[in-house]
Amino acid sequence: MTLLTTPRLRTADSALRDRALAVVPGGVYGHMTVLQQMPPSYPQFYSRGAGARVWDVDDNEYIDFMCAFGPMIAGYANPVIDAAAAAQQVKGDALAGPSRHFVELAELLVDTVAHADWAMFAKNGTDATSIAVVTARAETGRTKLLKARKAYHGANAWFTPNPAGVTAADRADIIEFEYNDLASLEAAVAEAEGDVAAIIVPPFRHDALYDQELATAEFARGVRAIATRIGAAFILDEVRTGFRLDMAGAWEQFGVRPDMTAFSKGIANGYSLAAVVGGQAYKEAAASIYVTGSFWMGGVAMAAAVATLTLLRDTNGIRTMNAAGSAFRTGLQSQAAAHGFGLVQTGPVVMPFMRFDDDAELRQVFAFTDAAVRRGVLLHPWHNMFFSAAHTLDDVATALERTDEAFAETRSLFPL
Amino acid sequence: MTLLTTPRLRTADSALRDRALAVVPGGVYGHMTVLQQMPPSYPQFYSRGAGARVWDVDDNEYIDFMCAFGPMIAGYANPVIDAAAAAQQVKGDALAGPSRHFVELAELLVDTVAHADWAMFAKNGTDATSIAVVTARAETGRTKLLKARKAYHGANAWFTPNPAGVTAADRADIIEFEYNDLASLEAAVAEAEGDVAAIIVPPFRHDALYDQELATAEFARGVRAIATRIGAAFILDEVRTGFRLDMAGAWEQFGVRPDMTAFSKGIANGYSLAAVVGGQAYKEAAASIYVTGSFWMGGVAMAAAVATLTLLRDTNGIRTMNAAGSAFRTGLQSQAAAHGFGLVQTGPVVMPFMRFDDDAELRQVFAFTDAAVRRGVLLHPWHNMFFSAAHTLDDVATALERTDEAFAETRSLFPL
C-alpha cells in the first residue's frame, strides 16, 4: 500500500511565513493562523478560489471544506454574485451615504427571515452580536447578558475566548449557563436577580475543539419561553450558521423565533458584511443606540448580499449543501470503519465536525488531516467545516477517493 | 440678486427614505443619517462617485467635500486603485487564509509609518482602536484607559457617544482628561493610581459640533513623556487623520512617536480596512491577544491599500490636498467677510470644520449648507469635512463660485 505522498511544494508559502513573522505579531493572528496549532502540511497563504476549490500560493489545488470559515456559501468567484458587486463597485462603494442596495437588502431580509421586521448592517459578526446586545440593553434598561459556556459570539472584549488584555469590567455583565440545559439557564436568570437584558445562543453548539451538539426542541422552546417570561431579549447568533440551515431562521424547525438574529459570514458570499434583524418590539431601541462604521453603508457588499440570498433561495442552495454534506459524512464514516477507526462526526452535515475516538491529544486527527491536505483535500482537525452550494457530488466523490488514502496512511502511522 | 434656487429633484431619494423607515430602525443610522440633523435639501442616498464628485440617487451632481467621511482619499473610482483591487477580486477575497497582500501591506506600513515595526489588520476603525487598547492591557497588565473628553474613538460600548444600551461596566476602565491640557492628563494619571494601561489621543481635536483644535507641541511631547514615565502605552488614533497629515505619522512634526497607531478610513480609498501598527515593545503582547474577524484576511482591500498608499506617497497626495484645502479656506473666508459673516474655520485645511459667529443654534450654517447643497456643493454644517488627492484647484474654483451665491442667499435670510 502506498502511504506517504511526496510533500507538496511549499516554497512561496514558507517565504511569506518568514516575511510575515517579521512584520506581523505572531505572523498570522486569529482563526486562520496555522502556526503551532495545525498539521505541518497545512498551507497558510492562498492565491485564489473558484467554485469549491482553493489554491495556495504555491499553486497547490484543494477541494475546500472550510469555505473561508464560512463566508463562501455559493462558490468562490461566483459569476452572478461577483457581477452584481462589480456593477456597484464601478459606481463606488463608500459614498456620502448609503445606496439603494441598503434598502433593497433590508427588504429582502425582512421577506426572508421569518421573525424580521427590520435590519441593520455592519462589517463583522462581532458588530452584529454587539449591536443586538446593546439594543437589548437600551430596550430593557437592564444590563446582564446570559450566554452559554464556551460559546463564541465574537472577538471583542466581551466575548474573546482568550483573557489576554481583557479586564474584569469587560466581563462583569455576563453570566454563563450550559447549552441545552434549561435548569442551568434558570439558575443564570436567578443569579441576575431581575437584571437580564438578553439571552444569546447559537442555533447549535459549535464550540471549537468539542463535539457539536444540536439544540433540543425543549431547549429551543425553553429559551424562548424564559426570555418572554422575564422580559429579556432572545438573540439568536446565526453569524456562523446563517443561510446554511434554514433561510427563514435556524429554529423555525422548532417553531421558535428570536427577538433579534445576528448574521455575517455567508450573507454576501465573502464580501464583508454583517446584519442584525429584529422584531417590531426592538425597532425603537435599535434606532436609539449609536453604532456606525466608516464602511458600513458601502453598496458593494450589500449588492453582493442581495445576489447571494436571492441565488440561495431560488436554487434551493441549502438542499444542495445538504446533499453534498450527507454524501461526505456517509463516505467518511464507512471509510473510517473499513480502516478500523472510530470516527465521530457531529453537527449538521453542512457544518461537520470530526474527531477520532481515543484521540484526546488530536494526534490521529492531525495525521489524517495532514494526509488529506497533502492529497488536496482541505479539512480541519478541531474546528467545524463548511459546505457550500458549489460543492457537487463529484467534488465529494473525488475528495473521498483521497480521504480513503489518507485513512490508510494514518493507519500506517497508528497500527492496530 | 438671484437667491433661492429651485429645489433639486428629490423623487428617488424621498421614495428610498420612506422604504428605509419601514425596514431599518431610524431609516438610516449612525454618522450618515440626515433625518432630523441636517439641512432639508441634504441628500440621503447616493448612486455613484468619480474623482471629487458624487451623484445622489436623483442624479444630482456634487463637488464633494465629505469624501464619504474620510474613506475616499485618492478620488472615487480611482482607476489605479480599483484595478489593483479588481485583480485580486477575480481570484477571491475571503479565502482559507490570507493572501500575499497581507504581508506586502504590513511591510509597506512598516516602511511608511515612522514608529511602526509591525501591523495588524481589521475592518473598522473601532476594531483598530480596540486592538490597540487590548494589546496595551496585555503588555502592561493594567486596566485603565485615559482618553480626552468628547474625543471619539469608535462606536463600541467603550466609546460610543450615546449612552443608550451602555452599562456602567462598559465605561468602568475609562478616565477622561482635557485635550491639550497636561495638568488635566496628570490628574487622570493620579486618579488611576498606577493602573494606566494606555493613553489614547487623536492628533488634533476633531470632536463633532466643536471648533477643531490643533495639538500644541507641548501637549504632544507631554503625552509621550508621561506615557513613558508611567510605563503605559501611548496610542495615537489616526483613524480619521491617517495619510492626510503626514504619511509617516501625524506627530512627526513634533518629533513625537506613539507606541501604537490606529488607522482606517482613507487607508484603502474606500475599501473596508483598518490597521494597527506598533513598535517592537508591543509586538509580543499583540500576538498574545485573540482578535479576528471573518473577513479580516481578505486580499482585496489589502491590495487596494497597497495601491492607495503607494499612489499617495509617489504623487505627494498630501501636498495636493493641502493646495486645494488652502485655496478653499482662503476663498470661503474672503467670501464670508464680503457678505458680512464671521466665518470660523478650524483644523488642518485638509480636514476643515466651519461655523458662523453668533450662530449657537446653527441656523446660519444650516441655511448656508442648504444653499450650497442645492448648488451642487456637498458641505457639512457640524462635522469636519475632508479633502482628497483628487480635489483640483478647478474643483475648488467651481465650488467657490457656488458658495458665493450660497453666502448671498444666506444673507438674504439673515439680513444685517
From TrEMBL, chains A, B:
Keywords from the UniProt entry: Membrane, Pyridoxal phosphate, Transmembrane, Transmembrane helix
Coiled coil regions in record: none
Molecular function in Gene Ontology: pyridoxal phosphate binding; transaminase activity
Transmembrane segments: 289-312
Required cofactor(s): pyridoxal 5'-phosphate
Entries under InterPro entries matching the protein: Aminotrans_3, Aminotrans_3_PPA_site, PyrdxlP-dep_Trfase, PyrdxlP-dep_Trfase_major, PyrdxlP-dep_Trfase_small
UniProt similarity note: Belongs to the class-III pyridoxal-phosphate-dependent aminotransferase family.
The protein, known as: Glutamate-1-semialdehyde 2,1-aminomutase
Organism encoding this protein: Glaciihabitans tibetensis
